[in-house]
Amino acid sequence: MIGTTLAGAAIALAILFLNLRKWWTGGRALKDLIPTGQGLITGAMSTVCVGGLAGWLSGCTRQATNFGGSKAVSGTTGTDSGSTIATASLGSLTPEGGVVVFLLFVATVAAYKAFNKEEKGRLLGAMAAGAILCATAGIAGMLHGLPEIANSLGASGRALLEGHGL
C-alpha cells in the first residue's frame, strides 16, 4: 500500500476545508453536503479495493498528492514534509461487500454525471481526500467499521436474492 505523507495529508485537509468552507459560509443546507459525503465514502472504500481499478486509482491519487504536496509545502514554507505517516487499512471486503462497493461506484458515477460543475469538483476532491486520509493509521482506525457495513449489506442482499430473507 502506498502511504500518505504529511504534505499529502495537508493537501487532503485543504481540499476538505475548501469544500466545507463553501458550505459553511453558504446556506448550510444538508443536501449541499451530498457531493462531499459521497466522495469521501467512495474514496475511503477505494482504499480497500486491493487488486482492483479503484484501489489502483487510490494509490495513484496518494502518490500524486504526496509529490505535489511535498512541492507545495516545501515551496511555501521551505521545510520538508515528505516523510510517510503511519499507514493502516480499513479492512477487507468479502465478495458480497465487493458487490456493494461496486454499486457505490456506479452510484457515484451516476451522481457525477448529474451534478453541476461545482458539485463535480467537490465530489472528485472529496474522493481524493478520502483515498488519501483513509490510508493513515488514525483515520483508518476511526473508520475501520466501514468495510464491515459493506460486507453486511452484501451478505443481506445475497440472502435476499437466494430467498432466505434479510
Q: Low-confidence parts lasting 5 or more residues at pLDDT below 50?
A: none
Q: Percent of residues in helical segments?
A: over 70%
Estimate what percentage of residues fall within beta strands.
under 5%
Count of β-strands: 0
Structural class: mainly alpha
Q: Oligomer, anyone?
A: single chain
Secondary structure elements and pairings:
Blueprint: H1 6-25, H2 34-46, H3 53-77, H4 95-114, H5 117-133, H6 137-142, H7 146-161
Please explain how this structure is put together.
With 166 residues, this protein is mainly alpha-helical. The protein is 70% helix and 0% strand. The chain contains seven helices and no strands. The radius of gyration is 17 Å and the shape is globular. It starts with 5 loop residues before the first helix and ends in a 5-residue tail after the last helix.
Briefly say what this structure is.
The protein has helices spanning 6-25, 34-46, 53-77, 95-114, 117-133, 137-142, 146-161. By secondary structure, it is mainly α.
Supply database-style keywords.
166 residues, single chain, globular, mainly alpha, 7 helices, 70% helix
